[in-house]
Each structure stands twice: as structure tokens, then as C-alpha cells.
Design a protein that fits this description.
Blueprint: H1 2-10, E1 26-35, H2 37-40, E2 57-68, H3 69-76, H4 78-84, H5 91-97, E3 102-103, E4 110-111, E5 113-116, H6 121-125, H7 148-158, H8 161-164, H9 173-185, H10 206-229, H11 236-248, H12 251-256, H13 258-268, H14 271-281, H15 286-299, H16 305-308, H17 317-340, E6 350-353, E7 356-359, H18 370-384, H19 394-398, H20 402-413, H21 416-419, H22 428-434, H23 447-457, H24 465-471, E8 488-491, E9 497-499, H25 507-516, E10 520-525, E11 530-535, E12 540-545, E13 548-549, E14 566-567, H26 569-581, H27 584-587
Antiparallel strand pairs: 1-2, 1-5, 3-4, 6-7, 8-9, 8-10, 10-11, 11-12, 13-14
Helix pairs in contact: 4-5, 9-10, 10-11, 10-13, 10-17, 10-26, 13-14, 14-15, 15-17, 15-20, 17-18
Length: 602
């Protein structure tokens, strides 16, 4: 199972600071950030006039390395402990006099959260073999008729690591996610304005915290699938972050705040997070709940076109947009069921081994054409709807068409209200409106085409560097400093040009990102072929290489020797993967060593 693979790799972890193998609880190093990439990939601006206010979402990344609580506090310095014990009036000084972030000693990731380390204590108490890095032993058969996820989830609620979690000066992921979202909505605030974990002046808001964590889990799933669409793959770190966030949510907290939490999710229109609440409260019935939700999704009005419409071409927008949207929705359900259950009866769904999990329908190879896409959707439907494996041979199952499955489900389902019993404080009409598959506004025609479309539409970067120079009028002087294009930076998100003269500093860029983006600012210098990424939360800048290169790999336009510069596929894939997952503090070491110069002095 997916959970077994994650636990096997986690059992090999040790403190990356002291390398002590004692039984002291470990904490996973993580990084929380915000990004509006998923909202921009909806391309809602194609059907609406005027600029849109894009929604920022929280992302969590776990590098897989762990530390002891005492080691993390030692890395922050003794002054951090003094300030944490000094009362609320000293909290504003904490971010100035003591760090609130550390670097992972192994991968140099900038860490701002510490996540609880999943444990298997209850398996040991029941006398079953635990996971070992040498023998890779796992408990055979069900333990109290529970899945591995349920065992770890119960164990995490009483584990000593949950108490150690609060003893460090670095924030826990729940609180950090909540404050990251609140600061993004307010246009971005400095790190010093973020309350610390022990701040007495900040009241606890469990509903807001649970709401943010649930949506973060959904964001991790969607971001991983959007990366697959541009040619990347589902990573181990993505599954680890989903798993750790899910097991860290306490069922008691969900039950106590269920009414207000469900009301907030209904207002947000997020049916998947409602399903997530239901499965975490009653994890034994996750298979039935996922099947009900999948049935309700196919019975919705939006999926009726899968039966009545026959595609004429690859670019048939109504069917293509619906099919790729259904693929992403079923992909999220597949993640949920695969993590929370142990039994995988379909060889054509996933392959588990060597510490990796490969979902065959959730790869870029499954999106090469519409026939492959329909087959991927069909495989996931057979898994989510619990179609028995012994229902014919694999060759016979491969002949099952998507339209026949949808038609059979619709005939037996009888509508959304009958096939979905929420058992949550929501109205039936709200449930009918929540379980919908919204059609995409742009047809998906393959990995390369989709990658170039995003770069052109979102970042305003054509395939040819020469065409970009012609579009920006390279001979036109700057309207501020009267210099040529060498000091002008284009905002990739809105197309506006800003002056990068040294005497202006960063003020113009900081003011622009507050009005243009809710998360980070991304600027591109056409003349130098480089990016400038601005991080609003801690007022940092990072200079990153551009995506244009010639046939010899040369990226500087002045040294291309007459060769034309075009978008590099490998660089474009890495750039889009970092942007979608918001991995700026993970992939680029320059983020930890920000140059305190002006944008014009690169």
C-alpha cells in the first residue's frame, strides 16, 4: 500500500543534525508557502472581462529529513528560547533578534515548520512486527480490522511527539498554513507581523485552522496532478505531505467544530474537503464514502455529456475540457483512497516498490491522446467504484468503455441526492451543487502543447526570444530613467514594465506585487534572459536563470553567436513544476542567500 511505502522510508530517517539513533521523538522538516498558480491555471479570465483577483493557496513540502526538538532549538540559538519565555511584549522582537527558519543540513531547504513524525507505537503494543529498515517487515493481515492509516492516525493522537511538537520555536504546519493564507489575503505582511505559537495576544481559531489544513491537502493533490499535465510525475514528497497532514488532524477537533467547518466549506463550494472531513471522522468506511462520491459525481449534470457526446477530434473543447477535469477530480479521489486503505487489487492502477509509488493513470504517458486519457479515467473509475477484480479477465476489463461505466452508474444511482449521504450538517440542495465537475476552459492537447500554452498565456513568454524582444520594443527607452531596455523588467503576470535602475531600489517592485499578485512577484528581463522572483512575506529577492537557450545550451543573448534562442524543454519543465508546487525555497539555494542589491544590479 501507499502508506506502507511511506512508513518504510520514514523508519530509515534519523536526526540530520546530531545523527543520534536514540528513541527521542523526531520531527519532519517542512516548508509552507503560498501561491496562486492553481487559480491561474483555471484560466477563468478567458470567459470574463477585466483583471481577476486570483486566490492564493497554501503549499506544504516535506524534504523527508528529520530533526530532534532539542537540535532544532539549538540551531535557532539560545536567544530564541529567552524571547519565547518573555511574554507577549517580546514577540515582535523575535523575528528581528532570533531566526524563525532553519536550513536542512542535507538538502539546504529553507524550513519554517516542523511536522509530527508518524509513528507505529500501537502495532508494537499489539505484539505485531514493526517496520524495520533491514527486514522491511510489515504486519500481515488486518490489525483489529484497521488499515495502516487508521493505526497511525490513532497512534498520532497519543504519541509523545505531539507534545514535543509544541516545544520548538518553529511553528507547527497547522498554524503556519492558517497565517500564511491570512497574510496572502491581506496583500502580504512581513514575517515580524506573524504571531508566534505562544503568543497570548492571538486567539485560537480552530475552524480557520482546520479549514486551511483541509484545503492545503486538496491543494497538494491538485498541484501534483497539474505538474503531471506539464510532463512531471507524482513525487514521494507530495504523498508524504498529504499523509502527514491527514494523520495530524485530530478527529475530536473535527467533530467539535464540524458544524462551523462544514458551513465554511459549503460557502467555499468545496465538496471534496467535505468528503475528507467525513472520511477522517469515519476512516473505516472510506471505501464506501469514496464510491458514493464518485457515483454522485458521475450522476451530476456536468458529466451527462460523457454519454451523449462523441468526440470528433482531439481539440473538441466541450468533451476534452470535461474529460481532463474529470481526470483531475478522480486523481484526487485516487490519492485519498490509496493513502487511507491498504488493499490494491488492480495491477493496471499502481506499482509499489523500491520506496516509490507509480500511479499509471496519473502519469504524463496517460495523457498523450484522448484515447489514453479515456483509458486512464476508466481505470480509476473501476478502482473507485469497487468493481471486483474477478469480474472478467484483464483483457475483458480493458474493453470496458467509459461511456458504458457512466451509463451503468447513472441508471443505478438515481441522482446525486440518493447516491450521496453526507451525514453532515448540510442541506441536500447544497450537496447537489457541490458535487460537480467543472469543465476546463482550454482544451488539453498534450504535454508539450500545454507547457507552451502556460508559458505564453500566464508568463507572456513566446517560444522565440527574438519574438519577445520585438514584442517589448527593445529600442524604446524606459519612461522613468530614460535608459534602454537593459534595465527594464517585465512583470510576467500582467505584462507591465518596471524600471530596475539602482537608484529606485526595490520599492517599485514591492508596490507592484501587492497590486498584481497575492503571493509572489515574478519579473523577467528580456535583454539579460533572467528572472527576478520576489517573496513578499520576508522581503527577499532571488535571481534565477531564464528559460531561453540556443542549441549549445548558451543562455546569454550576447554570447549566442547568432544562434536563435528558444524555450528549453527541460528548463521549462523545472520552472513550471517549481511554480505550480511553490518550491522556490526548496529547489533554488539562492533563496537562502538573497542578494541585498537592487534589481538593476544583476
Amino acid at each position: 500500500s501507499v502508506t506502507a511505502v511511506l512508513l518504510l522510508r520514514l523508519m530509515e530517517a534519523e536526526c540530520c543534525m546530531c545523527y543520534d539513533t536514540t528513541s527521542e521523538p523526531l520531527l519532519l522538516l517542512g516548508s509552507v508557502s503560498t501561491s496562486d498558480s492553481l487559480d491561474r491555471l483555471e484560466f477563468n479570465d478567458l470567459e470574463q472581462e477585466g483583471p481577476l483577483q486570483h486566490k492564493a493557496r497554501a503549499h506544504l513540502y516535506l524534504c523527508g529529513h528529520a530533526v530532534h526538538t532539542r537540535c532544532a532549538n539549538k540551531a535557532l540559538g539560545p536567544l530564541a528560547h529567552v524571547l519565547s519565555q518573555g511574554g507577549a511584549f517580546l514577540h515582535p522582537l523575535h523575528s528581528i533578534l532570533a531566526p524563525t527558519e532553519i536550513n536542512c543540513p542535507i538538502c539546504l531547504m529553507l524550513c519554517n515548520v516542523l511536522c509530527p513524525f508518524p509513528t507505529m507505537d500501537c502495532i508494537e503494543k499489539q505484539g505485531h512486527p514493526v517496520i524495520s529498515s533491514s527486514g522491511h517487515s510489515m504486519p500481515t493481515g488486518p490489525i483489529d480490522e484497521s488499515s495502516l492509516f487508521q493505526i497511525v492516525h490513532r497512534s498520532m493522537q497519543d504519541a509523545p511527539v505531539m507534545e514535543k511538537w509544541k516545544a520548538t520555536r518553529i511553528q507547527d504546519p497547522h498554524r503556519r498554513i492558517c497565517w500564511a493564507l491570512s497574510s496572502a489575503k491581506s496583500g502580504g505582511i512581513s514575517e515580524s507581523a506573524i504571531p508566534t505559537e505562544r503568543s497570548d495576544a492571538v486567539p485560537e481559531e480552530p475552524v480557520c485552522t482546520l479549514f486551511g489544513v483541509l484545503q492545503c491537502i486538496r491543494t497538494l493533490m491538485c498541484a501534483s496532478l497539474e505538474c503531471v499535465k506539464v510532463g512531471d510525475s507524482v513525487r514521494y514528497n507530495d504523498l508524504l505531505a498529504m499523509f502527514c497532514l491527514m494523520v495530524s488532524l485530530k478527529p475530536r477537533a473535527l467533530e467539535e467544530n464540524k458544524k462551523q467547518l462544514c458551513a465554511a466549506l459549503v460557502e467555499e463550494g468545496d465538496g471534496f474537503c467535505l468528503l475528507l472531513v467525513k472520511t477522517l471522522l469515519q476512516s473505516r468506511d472510506v471505501t464506501m464514502f469514496v464510491a458514493e462520491y464518485t457515483t454522485a459525481l458521475l450522476c451530476s449534470d456536468s458529466c451527462a455529456q460523457l454519454i451523449t457526446t462523441v468526440m470528433e477530434s482531439e481539440s473538441d473543447l466541450p468533451h476534452n475540457g470535461l474529460l481532463i477535469a474529470l481526470w483531475r477530480e478522480l486523481g484526487c479521489l485516487t490519492f485519498l483512497k490509496a493513502i487511507m486503505t491498504d488493499t490494491v487489487e488492480y495491477d493496471d492502477l499502481m506499482q509499489v516498490g523500491d520506496g516509490q509509488v507509480n500511479f499509471f493513470p496519473l502519469t504524463s504517458g496517460a495523457l498523450t491522446d484522448l484515447a489514453s486519457l479515456r483509458r486512464a479515467v476508466t481505470v480509476m473509475l473501476l478502482y473507485l467504484l469497487n468493481v471486483p477484480r474477478d469480474n472478467g479477465s484483464q483483457n475483458e476489463r480493458s474493453k470496458i468503455t467509459l461511456s458504458s461505466i457512466v451509463r451503468s452508474v447513472v441508471e443505478k444511482g438515481g441522482g446525486t441526492d440518493k447516491c450521496l449521504q453526507w451525514d453532515l450538517p448540510i442541506c441536500p440542495q447544497d450537496a447537489r451543487a457541490l458535487v460537480q465537475c467543472k469543465r476546463h476552459h482550454v482544451a488539453y492537447e498534450g504535454v508539450l502543447e500545454w507547457r507552451h500554452f502556460i508559458l505564453s498565456r500566464v508568463f507572456r513568454l513566446p517560444n522565440s526570444h527574438t519574438q519577445l524582444l520585438l514584442d517589448v520594443k527593445a529600442n524604446a527607452p524606459c519612461s522613468v530613467c530614460d535608459e534602454m531596455v537593459v534595465c527594464r523588467w517585465m512583470c510576467c503576470l500582467c505584462g507591465k514594465f518596471l524600471c530596475g535602475a539602482s537608484q529606485l531600489g526595490h520599492s517599485e517592485f514591492e508596490l507592484h506585487v501587492a497590486a498584481c499578485s497575492s503571493a509572489i512577484g515574478i519579473y523577467f528581463c528580456p535583454y539579460k534572459n533572467c528572472f527576478l522572483v520576489q517573496f513578499t512575506r520576508n522581503r527577499r529577492f532571488a535571481y534565477l536563470p531564464g528559460l531561453y537557450s540556443d542549441q549549445y545550451g548558451q543562455r546569454k543573448p550576447s554570447k549566442s553567436a547568432g544562434c536563435s534562442l528558444t524555450l528549453c524543454n527541460d528548463a521549462s519543465l523545472k520552472w513550471l513544476s517549481v511554480w505550480i508546487r511553490s518550491l522556490w525555497a526548496v529547489e533554488y539555494k539562492v533563496v537562502t542567500q538573497i542578494r541585498r542589491t537592487s534589481p538593476g544590479q544583476t
